[in-house]
Design a protein that fits this description.
This protein is an alpha/beta fold. The chain contains 27 helices and 21 strands.
Amino acid sequence: MINKALAFLKKYFGYTSFRPGQDRIIESVLSGKNTIGIMPTGGGKSLCYEIPALCFDGLTIVISPLIALMKDQLDSLVRNGYPAAMINSTINIVEQKQIMESVARGQVKLLYLTPERFRSESFFRWIKDLKISLFAVDEAHCISEWGHDFRPEYKRLKSVCSELGNPPILALTATATKEVIKDIEISLGLSNPEIIVNGFNRSNLVYGVEIAVTNEDKIKKIDAFLSKVKMPGIIYTSATKDVDNIYNYLRTNTKYTCAPYHAKLDKNTRTTNQELFISGKVDILIATNAFGMGVNKPDIRFVIHYSMPGSIEAYYQETGRAGRDGKLSFCYLLSMSADERIQRFFIKNRNPSVEKLKFVFDKLNSYSKNGYITESPETLAANCDISINLVETILKHLHFMDILETEYVSEDKIIIYFHKKEYQSAQSEIFNELISFKKGNSAELGIRFICRRLDLTLKEFEGKIEELVKSKAVSVEWRREGRMMKLTGKKISEKELAHYRENLSKKEAIDNAKVEAIIQYTMLNGESCRRKYLLNYFGEEYTEGNCKLCDNCRGTNKNIPEKLSKEQNTILIFILLNNNRVGKTKAIKILKGAYDIEEKYKKFDEYGSLKKMDTSDIEGEIGLMQQYGYLAYNPGKFPLLIITERGRKMIK
């Protein structure tokens, strides 16, 4: 069947052969085996289900985590005349029916779906009657609770496949450790799957890290770096305010064209900025990690990380967007001690306490109208006085516990509950028209439909409804187009809370270990190859003594100074004499000679020894020496500064 696959490859994509790794995965899939494929970002994972879909008689389902991602992939396929379609919340009812008819006639060979789609009973009944030849799970690391991008809805795919008659499964990802691969295998119920790892080495990428003292220092280093590289490129950062700051600086102080991209921008602005970048009309896109998944721009010459990401997996995936055309490209990470603090904060937000989980659940119940929550997550966050990120994480967990589910409303609707059988007033004609649609004690109507039926504008219709509500003839619920939350009526059991506590502890430990791994990467000195570190992290051996394409192997790493400054030496001596006795804040106050400190500390010989330095500069120097590996923290409830063996050797 591989010859048939090659013929389709030529017909729809213009290639005469598969890339290394693609052929092994495709052969495994065509033989009907359950397969887990690990390929580097830009390695052509999508062909591993697009080609088999054409070879099989039945339908291939592709599960994708993001609607924007599937839309980009579908647009590319349709331009090539490929028989594919998608069904999600952006497709209206009429279009959905047309697509379903095309699928039934065999005119669609590949159908993109989000995992949430199977919550629709009518859709599930329909698709169970079809012949499913392949069930492909893209971005399969989303199924793992221990992965860097866990999506609870992915956990339901095992039971979905069972309901569909257990078709062959293909799970694909670019970033998976051995632990995550095992979790994918278990979560999808794969028995002895073919596991094909195509290697993580991107031989055309140059890796480098530079330590910065302040955010202003980071900006200067970015400016200097940009003068040495070709365009275009991406600058990633952890915070939206940093996106705006970098954008404003580059726009006003450099010759480069640039655009911002983050979740706080409206959808149209994000789409416009992405298209400007993809089309080459913008040199640099400054973005949070909201940008990138599924973006296919082969000529990205650099990826800068303004702030340290939370894991090697995230770093590898984001840097993997550079150099997909095989040409030399640069991955430049700026590291500052404050970055670790930000990532530890994110860990707390990703792992909410049981108390916060119950608090948000109670708040949802108070908002519930027949189970539906009309308030947005943003409103919920404001009313709970907790961050939007934490709220969204809690909603994910409630979703996973079957306490909360998501409905996708394809158009604006109104549900009218009738409290009177007749109504005599100026609005009686409208009341009689509305009650004619009554089923049980209510009527559910599309806003556009009923406005046309009554020959009213939306504003006029809302006014008429308001009058009926005031007269207590009806009560209503408005369902706006898009995602809507719904409580299932299930309560949180003590058993579930105990399980949540246990998993919470494990997850926090794993997340902290991931941060430690990326910190160690930033601290690698001239003797350690960054490429080898990355590949070893993913379980791949790298035997070359010198990769020639990282700052350490090229001899360009200038992060570790040959000798200490006078001020750095003073700090190290102070920590040596007070090893494991003071935290960073206390150390800064003593060295600065702060007045607001206990009297006993004012008797220290080092009190005020750095009084000419700003507090922020002392903090920056301590952070630098932590990154040099001279200082560390003794982990505990109150982290205390300790001097390392490397630090002791540097003291003069």
